[in-house]
Structure formats: C-alpha cells, structure tokens
Amino acid sequence: MSYTHELHTALLAVQRATLLTQTVFHTNAKGTLSKDDHSPVTIGDFGAQALIIAAIRHNFPNDEIVGEEEAATLRENTSLAEQIFSLVKQSKLDDAEAESQLGGPVKDVEAMLVAIDAGKSNGGNKGRIWALDPVDGTKGFLRGGQYAVCLALMVDGDVKVGVLGCPNLPVDDAAPISADVGGEGKGVLFAAVQGEGATSRPLTKGALAQEKKIGMKGVGDITQATFCESVEAGHSSHGDQAEIAKRLGITKESVRMDSQAKYGSIARGAGDLYLRLPVRKDYEEKIWDHAAGDLIVREAGGEVTDAEGKRLDFGVGRTLKRNKGVVATPKAVHGAVLKVVKEVLGSK
After folding, report:
1. Which of 119, 106, 79 is closest to 286 using CA atoms?
2. Which residues are catalytic?
3. What angle is formed at CA 290 by the lines to CA 266 and CA 220, rounded to 5 degrees?
4. CA-to-CA distance for 44 and 88, rounded, in angstroms?
5. Between 159 and 234, whose confidence is greater?
6. CA-to-CA distance for 78 and 84, rounded, in angstroms?
7. pLDDT band for position 348 (cuts 50, 70, 90)
8. What is the residue-wise DSSP string for 196-220?
9. Is the pTM of this model over 0.85?
10. How far apart are CA 181 and CA 137, in angstroms?
C-alpha cells in the first residue's frame, strides 16, 4: 500500500508547525506551564499540536491521534488561549497550494481547542493512529537547545510513516554532530516510509524542498564511534552510558542533545549510537517520543531495540510498556553494543 498522501501531509504539517515553534523559540516569554507529571509545556507545544491535528483531521478525518497535550488549561485561561491562537493564525506556509492541502487556517479559538483535544486516543494495535509530539525536548526548547516536531502514522500498531522537523540541526547531512544551535544553514526535515528508505531536506516556509536519501554511517571500529545521549539525567542514565562506552573502548565524549534530533543525527551518519537507558524500573516511555525516530533510523539502515534486544512495540497504548530503554545503532554493531548494555544493566 502507498502512503504518499500521508507522507506529504505529514511533511507539510510538521513544516508549518515548525514556523510557529521558531517564532516562540526566539522570544523570551514562552508561556511555560507545568503539567501533572511536572514536565513543562509551552505555548509552542499547544500551538503546534493544534496546527498538526487540524491538518490530519482535514486530510484523514477518520484517523485517531495520540497527542501529548490537552486543552483543559487553555479553556480555563482564555487570555493564554487567545495568545496561542494569534500565533496559530499567523503560522501559515508561503505556498498557497501547500497551505490549502493542510486545510488552510484554523478558524477560531474554539476550533483550535477542539483540535488540541482531538489527540486523546488511547493508541493500540488496531487501525490508523497518529503519534504526535508537538515540541519534543521542551526543556531544550526552553534553554535554547535542540528540539523536534515529531509525527508518525501507525497502522495496526506498526509505524508506517515518520517525520521529524528539527529547526536547530544543520541542513548539511555531512556536518559533524553537535548540540550547538548557532550559525546559518539550520533547519532540517527528516522522513521515512516503511520499506522506502529515509530522507532529509531543508525546512522551508513554503512548498517542500528537494529530498536527499540518508543512511547510517558504517562503523568499522567501534572504539571510534560517537554516542548521542539525552541532556536530562532524568531521561537516561549517564553513569551507565559512561560505563558502556568504557567497556566498548569509546573515548570520544558523548554528544548530549534533547529530543528525537538524536535519531535524525545518527540516521544521516552525523553520530553513530543512541542509548536511552532506564533510570527507574517503573518508567514507561511515551510512544510519541520514539515512533518517528525509530522508523527513520531503521529505514536508514540502522537497528533499534530496547535494552533487552526487543523491537519497540508501539501497539500497546500510549506508552512503550513492553519495553525498557532504547538502543539505536548501525546494524553491523548492534549485537556488540547490546551485549555490553545487557552486561552493565545486569550488573546493577
């Protein structure tokens, strides 16, 4: 089955949403609130979710959506809702045809709130379900670091389409991996369709730019590999990662960056290995934090499993409750890396 329409819609929807997030990124007041789990949410999260869900509902009205945010707070805080709507209203693609394909502008504040709240699907392994993280790496977004706008389509629990918008990563696929966000030539859109490979293209303000195929870098000597890991120690165990690197003979300092920008970076060969190691036994990863990146890395010739060597299972709800941790590497070295991961985690 072809997913051409789904891919095109996802690419344009993510590209339009990054316009809003970039506007918020470059302002001092990001409208930060704290959610029930004490994680931060910004006006960028709400606005990007509204824009993307509106586009999905216009093109695929019967599809379900698992979104990270909900609108209850905004219904109680009308001034904040109005502030977000003004951003949503001004975030439009320069290309009239592309904007039309997304259904045009969101009509009013109520339509925006309804769109945000349409992301309440419980997920599962039946039917077509989109997984959306409107601003992945919110803490990075707040501190001026890396973040990503992430969207994936799952069909019967299997990820078929994945798109990542990374406004602060370099366009150049050959640029060395760095958490730095300064300078020109930034903003990249990664994508993959199951069985069709992975691509990158520059983010634009209008129609889609020309795509290029991307692929994982071959790692002949594991001691020369570059690790990516989360900035937040609460997301991944830095101590375990350091021990794994030591046992593999890797002496290069790992690159710490927020969000699924790590998946995009290793998929195009800018980095080599991405580990997200469990910090506590009861933690369950959210599907929207991994669905798009998992597919993009696998379609770029990599392998992605949990810390026990099992494929990530996106068909059991809103979380990866059957998996612990993430190990993403080039296929040729996955077994060697996984063996050391198991040794280190098993010794605790």
Report:
1. 119
2. 45, 138
3. 25
4. 9
5. 159
6. 10
7. low
8. S-EEEEE--SSSPPPPEEE-PPP-S
9. yes
10. 14
Residues belonging to the chain: 348
pLDDT-derived band at 278 (thresholds 50, 70, 90) equals confident
The predicted pLDDT at position 32 comes to 75
Q: Which two tokens stand for residue 181?
A: 């966000």
Specify the pLDDT at position 27.
85
Beta strands in the chain (DSSP E): 33-34, 40-41, 64-67, 128-136, 148-155, 158-170, 186-193, 198-202, 212-214, 227-229, 255-256, 273-276, 302-305, 326-330
- Find out whether 24 and 44 touch, Cβ atoms under 8 Å: yes
For residue 51, CA distances in Å to 58, 91, 158, 200, 293 come to 11, 9, 24, 22, 21
Radius of gyration of the chain (CA): 19
Confidence band, pLDDT 50/70/90 cuts, at residue 29: low
